[in-house]
Amino acid sequence: MRVGVLTGGGDCPGLNAVIRSVVRKGVQEYAFEFVGVRDGWLGLLQNDVRPLDVSTVRGILPRGGTILGSSRTNPFKHQDGLQRVRETLAAHEVDALVVIGGEDTLGAAVELGRQGIHIVGVPKTIDNDVSGTDYTFGFDTAVGIATEAIDRLHTTAESHMRTLVVEVMGRHSGWIALHAGIAGGANVILVPERPFDIDEVCEQVRNRFKINYAPIVVVAEGAAPKEGQLVLKDRSLDEFGHVRLSGIGEWLAREISERTGKDARTTVLGHIQRGGTPSAFDRWLATRFGLHAVDAVKDGDFGTMVALHGTEIVRLPLDEAIARNKLVDPALYDEFETFYG
Ligand code: F6P
Predict the structure, then answer these.
(1) Which of these, 108, 168, 306, 339, has the minimum number of CB atoms within 10 Å of its CB?
(2) From the CB of 102, is ligand 1 less than 6 Å away?
(3) Which residue CA neighbors atom 15 of ligand 1 most closely?
């Protein structure tokens, strides 16, 4: 059996741990051969495929990013995309693909699966918003980075008695904002799932100043005011139709400052949340996903995705596993009411 491995979409810590685990188990236990597809689906469109063996994956467990490269390429947005994918797979005698990606990359995988290509999916994203799995790897690392940033911002905010707004990633879901906000002791946490009232936010900020503390506001990049719109970085769309976000943090600091009459500043964490070495939990989860993905290939169980349910790794039909975004449950958000404001 010859297996191709690709990583698509935004990178995240733990991708290399999956690649290593897929290759190690596949070679050692099943005598599979592997090839690495460069830059996600782009490598299959451009016939950019390289050998991948145990020596290639040595030493990559703690390394962030992906040794295979990544891109937000949608094969169905390119002329003859399906045909070119088929040709590349045939040229390299690839029988099956392990596709490591988020909603977009795995969405294309579903369609390619329907066209007869043998695929096992592995969910990744720092946003943690793939519905079929309790957690995606990369999320824990991102939450750790954001929490450390909030810890640091507390001390400087207190020194100047000003509001510090921290903008974190999270296009559709506020998982990073909620987890890091709670772990870091933020006073206001704003998530895409719940449009916010700017008057209420300012009230919470004032309350914090009244008891002589400096407010920390954590906002997900996809959060928006009740009356208003998403703040966009620019108007360009990627091949999956997504806009580039970022700017809500700056907008909030301006509004808070004008409305409360007190200084407010913003820190945008951006790609710092995606870079660097994965946490121990993410290495553990990514390694398990890899081991189970290669088992699914061995079993010929294609059109599936590995997922974490509780402490078990399970296989789900890929189309069902990514059918919707996993959003922050309102009850979970409300659980922390005590700490807001
Ligand atoms: O898809 C994950 C994500 O981290 C989103 O939260 C964010 O909007 C996006 O990636 C930004 O990615 P890039 O700048 O690489 O396009």
Answers:
(1) 339
(2) yes
(3) 10
SS3 239: coil
Entry pTM: 0.95
Q: Looking at the DSSP assignment, which residues form a beta bridge with residue 96?
A: 3
Mark whether 225 and 246 lie in a shared domain: yes
pLDDT digits (tens, 9 = 90+) for 287-302: 999 999 999 999 999 9
Instruction: Find the Cα–Cα–Cα–Cα dihedral 36, 38, 40, 43, rounded to 10°.
Output: -110
- Count, residues in the chain: 341
We report the CATH number of the domain holding residue 171 as 3.40.50.460
Instruction: Please tell me whether residues 18 and 133 are part of one structural domain.
Output: yes
Could you say which of 127, 140, 282, 295 is catalytic? Answer: 127
Count how many domains the chain has: 2
- Determine the distance separating the centroid of ligand 1 and the alpha carbon of 191, expressed in angstroms: 16
Same domain, yes or no, for 230 and 150? yes
Cβ 138 under 6 angstroms from ligand 1: no
Task: Give yes or no: 48 in active site.
Answer: no
**Span 24-65, pLDDT tens digits:** 999 999 999 999 999 999 999 999 999 999 999 999 999 999
Nearest alpha carbon to residue 107 among 306, 327, 320, 291: 320
Cα 65 to middle of ligand 1, angstroms: 14
Phi, psi for residue 74 in degrees, rounded to 5: -110, 110
What are the C-alpha distances in Å from 260 to residues 26, 210, 251? Answer: 60, 12, 14
Query: Separation of 181 CA from ligand 1 center, angstroms?
Result: 19
Q: Which domain holds residue 296?
A: 2-137+278-321
